[in-house]
Amino acid sequence: MEMSDGNELIRIVNIENKGRAIVSSRDLKAGEVILKESPLLLYSAIPLDAAAAAANYCAHCFRIISHKAVPCPNCSPPSLFCSSKCQSQSSSSSHTAFVCQSLAHLRSPDSPLRRHDQDRHIQAWFLISAYNLALISPPHFQILLSLQGEPTIDETSLLLHSITSDACRRHSPIPPPSVELTAALLAKDKLNAFGLMEPLDEDRERSVRAYGIYPKASFFNHDCLPNACRFDYVDSAANGNTDIVVRVIHDLAGGREVCLSYFPVNVKYSERQARLMDDYGFICDCDRCRVEASWSDDETMEEDHDSMEEGTCDDDDFPHSYFFVKYMCSGENCGGTLAPLPPGSSSDNNNNTKTMECNVCGRLEVDEEDN
Ligand SMILES: C[S@@+](CC[C@H](N)C(=O)[O-])C[C@H]1O[C@@H](n2cnc3c(N)ncnc32)[C@H](O)[C@@H]1O
């Protein structure tokens, strides 16, 4: 696996009980970008019935639409684009005739999808995007199929199969998918999709604007004390605004597994274990979980974080408190992780200071180095 500049920074190995994993190919410096990857596919996180009318972002590049929207001339209610360039690019990629007709079909007042909740709408949107990938790029569709996730044929997959394969039958030039294929795709989505987040608004819970599948980033396993974190810059004007960027949080020796946390690091032990089992199907046995397994439910990381700052925390009780002091964003209700800016970047990392960037609210904090 190669970084964009051609340096091999990470590679994929198999680790017992974890499957494929990413390890560092050499010593890595705090803040170093180890992966910048474009999505294999992207799909909206707004329910299909509301999407066309309510969306204030472009259906192709997912940036906020700041000028007059350009509507798709073929679907009703129309998908909206931020420019005629995005609209024209989408017609051979994200918004082909198949997607256009299928979305119009699913949004129509008599669509059976209308009786179902938001989660089903978003899954239906994912399936249409995945079937579209099979049409426009079979090799990329095969990459999607190679990701982790075993099919489960249950009520949800049967429902979504019946709704979306009907759209395929009517609008796709290739035969409709089997129910097994639909169920397999849903499993890939569940385990591998990354949310591209709306900017943090302190008055509202942070929401997801779109989901993306990034095949290389999908090989990162979870650790409750991650050594890397991922950033997205969806409203950036630069090219690659929907790319995922992964940076290491602190210096890392070559040959070490590089892990992300699949959710904010300040989630307590019992909830972390429940989410990892329900959503990802495994029991986490990381260093932090081994320590926290013996804690009572009302003993929280925040209490230890506070006592660490007051100097009253016993390191034996909470050997990981250093992580929370140094790498957790102090912004209210943020819960983000801090990683240094990449070595050599302009506002960064002189002498004994590092500029840390939060991967949720984007705040920059100066960290006085302790070495
Ligand atoms: C996004 S995939 C990560 C890559 C995956 N290992 C593979 O082989 O493709 C998520 C899945 O990896 C496995 N996994 C991730 N972190 C793990 C961990 N800390 N312990 C055990 N399994 C883990 C689980 O099976 C999980 O559903």
Radius of gyration: 22 Å
So what's the CATH class of the largest domain? Mainly Beta
Query: What would the average pLDDT be, to the nearest integer?
Result: 88
Low-confidence blocks of residues: 1-6, 308-313
Helix content: 25-40%
Distance between the termini: 32 Å
CATH T-level topology of the largest domain? Beta-clip-like
The hetero molecules present are:
S-adenosylmethionine
Global shape: globular
**Strand line-up of the largest beta sheet:** 3-11-10
Number of helices: 11
Question: Mind explaining what this structure looks like?
Answer:
Helices cover 32% and strands 17% of the residues. By secondary structure, it is α+β, with helices and mostly antiparallel strands. It has a 3-stranded antiparallel β-sheet, with no helix packed on it. A hairpin with an 8-residue loop joins strand 5 and strand 6. Helix 4 crosses helix 5 (138-146), helix 6 (155-171) crosses helix 7 and helix 10 packs across helix 11 (321-327). Residues 1-6 and 308-313 have low confidence and may be disordered. Bound molecules: S-adenosylmethionine. S-adenosylmethionine binds next to strand 2, helix 7 and strand 9.
Short description:
The protein is an alpha+beta fold and 371 residues long.
Task: Outline the fold blueprint.
Elements: E1 10-15, E2 19-24, E3 33-37, E4 41-44, H1 48-54, E5 70-71, E6 80-81, H2 84-90, H3 97-107, H4 118-136, H5 138-146, H6 155-171, H7 179-192, E7 193-197, E8 208-213, E9 221-222, E10 228-231, E11 244-248, E12 259-260, H8 269-280, H9 287-292, H10 301-310, H11 321-327, E13 338-340, E14 353-358, E15 364-368
Parallel strand pairs: 9-12
Antiparallel strand pairs: 1-2, 3-11, 4-8, 5-6, 7-8, 10-11, 13-14, 14-15
Helix pairs in contact: 3-4, 3-6, 4-5, 4-6, 4-7, 6-7, 10-11
The chain binds S-adenosylmethionine.
